[in-house]
Amino acid sequence: MHEIEKIKNKLIGEFWAIKRVGAKKPFQNPMAACKTIKLYEADIVADIGAYIGEYSLYASKFVKTVNAYEGSPNTFKVLCMNKNSKINAYNKIVVGDDSKTARLYLTKCSGQGAANSIVNIKKDFIDVPAINYNDAIKNATIAKIDVEGAEYNYSIINDNLRAIILEFHRIGKNYKDKANQIMHDLENAGFKSTYKIPEFKNGWDTNSAWIRS
User: Fold this and answer.
1) 10 Å Cβ neighbour count for 168?
2) Could you say which residues of the chain have pLDDT below 50?
3) DSSP for 169-205, written as a single string
4) Which residues contact 116 (CB under 8 A, 6 or more apart)?
5) Distance between terminal CA atoms of the chain?
6) How many C-beta atoms surround the C-beta of residue 210 within 10 A?
7) Are the CB atoms for 178 and 151 separated by under 8 Å?
8) Is there a contact between 39 and 211 (Cβ–Cβ < 8 Å)?
């Protein structure tokens, strides 16, 4: 169960947010890593795992277009409530293959929807439309990726991307090895970190941001 409240954020302004019943305030995604990537009017952003659109709203203040992908129907409805003329919202999950649908596993607080995942298998699930990662980012210059473990199934680096904002997730036995390999690949492709590099020393040490040097 959840409630929808309008809140105000210094970075974003007013927007609709989701609050679980019993919670003191609505959930908000951290934006510290996102802010380290400077945005330009010519940029096109792919917001993958857009949730309710916090980063999409922030980016839309500066860039040409934001393509926001959110698979969870409940959070997609709120994303649509928040979107503006620069934001294109798609009720699709971004996958690493050519599947047309994907199974979305729902957390116990599925009304909030922030931790629903296609790889962290739970009892409850729904099937939703899917789009290949390469198709989702084909015109983008910046990708923001927050997909609850599905990031390990993507070939994240792409020639047209000048910056990548990426949250790693502690899902799977070898998540740390996979995350370190992605960071190694980013550095080898000419990206440098604009935020602290995750060392996974605590539950929140998972956010990163990278720009092509």
Assistant:
1) 23
2) 110-112
3) ---STTHHHHHHHHHHHHHHTTEEESSPPP---STTT
4) 71, 72, 75, 104, 105, 106, 107, 110, 148
5) 45
6) 29
7) no
8) no
